[in-house]
Write a structure and sequence with these properties.
The chain has about 120 residues and is α+β, with helices and mostly antiparallel strands. The chain is built from four helices and four strands, in the order ααββαββα. A hairpin with a 4-residue loop joins strand 3 and strand 4. The longest helix has 22 residues. It is elongated, with a radius of gyration of 15 Å.
C-alpha cells in the first residue's frame, strides 16, 4: 500500500506519460534520421521497444549474437543500461521517477551509437 501511496503522492503516473512521450518522440526522430539502424519504436509509458533495422551494415561484435544483443552491449559500454527483447528489439524500462534530463542523456547515448552505423 505504501508503494501505491508514493506513486499517487509523487504523481508518478503523470511523469511516466510525459517522459515516456518525450522518449518515444526522440526515438521516432532517430528512426527517421537513421533508418538503416532503427526501424521503429513502440511502447506504453516508459516501457519502450526499439526495433532495429535488419542487417545493420558494418555492425561490430560477435556475429553469432543477435543484433539486439550486440547493440545492447554497445549501449552498456557507452553507459546506458538496456536489455534485448528478441533478435532485433531493445527494451527500455527505466524507473517511474526518471527525469527528462536523464531521458535526454539516454537519448544522446542511443543516438551516438546509432550514428556510428548509419552509413
Amino acid at each position: 500500500m505504501k508503494i501505491l501511496e508514493v506513486v499517487r503522492e509523487e504523481k508518478l503516473q503523470d511523469n511516466v506519460r510525459a517522459v515516456g512521450e518525450f522518449l518515444k518522440n526522440g526515438l521516432q526522430a532517430f528512426a527517421k534520421k537513421y533508418p538503416r539502424v532503427i526501424h521503429e519504436t513502440r511502447g506504453v509509458g516508459l516501457m519502450i521497444g526499439i526495433e532495429l533495422a535488419e542487417n545493420i551494415p558494418n555492425f561490430p561484435g560477435d556475429a553469432t549474437k543477435t543484433q539486439a544483443i550486440r547493440f545492447v552491449n554497445l549501449l552498456h559500454a557507452a553507459g546506458l543500461l538496456t536489455i534485448p527483447a528478441g533478435a532485433n528489439v531493445i527494451r527500455l524500462l527505466p524507473a517511474l521517477n526518471l527525469r527528462q534530463t536523464e531521458a535526454e542523456e539516454g537519448l544522446k547515448i542511443i543516438e551516438s551509437v546509432a550514428a556510428k552505423f548509419a552509413g
